[in-house]
Amino acid sequence: xxxxxxxxxxxxxxxxxALALAAPARAQGVVKNKFGDWELRCETPAGAAKEQCALMQxxxxxxxxxxxxxxxxxxxxxxxSRLLRVIAPLGILLPGGLGLKVDQTDVGRAGxxxxxxxxxxxxxxxxxxxxxxxxxxxTATFIIFQTPEEGIGIPLNLAGFAQGYEAxx
Length: 169
Prior knowledge:
By secondary structure, the chain is of the alpha+beta class. The chain has helices at about 1-25, 130-135, 160-165; strands at about 30-35, 40-45, 50-60, 65-75, 80-90, 100, 105-110, 110-115, 120-125, 140-145, 150-155. A 7-stranded antiparallel beta sheet has the order 1-2-3-4-5-9-8. A 4-stranded antiparallel beta sheet has the order 7-6-10-11, covered by helices on one side.
């Protein structure tokens, strides 16, 4: 059983890493629609059979405009998984991970899977519960750390997320 779980964990980590490499390219896709502060961006990657789309929002910390996050919701190309990917700035404390609160309710933490020249990537598979929480919530607050004692909460407006997510192909 442990070897099955370990192989599954390795497969998920590899998938997350491969998908994280595509994040900068996906961020440059064409804006197809807007849903509140969310943009539906699409592009057809080289060698792909069909267009791939993601729901995205960029946001800066209210008290630190140089601390930005890019939040991406997407369905994998095979349509089997739903991912929430967050790209945080370089220079953050990685062991602290990325915290998430929705409307002041602690949703949990995600570890960072990789750092790229554009920032460090945290990614989780959105289960039904998380997806519903994001669809019905008003504000998501992502928490990153610059030191073990200093968490920075970055609020993100969820208005439009439900409609935007439903518009994803």
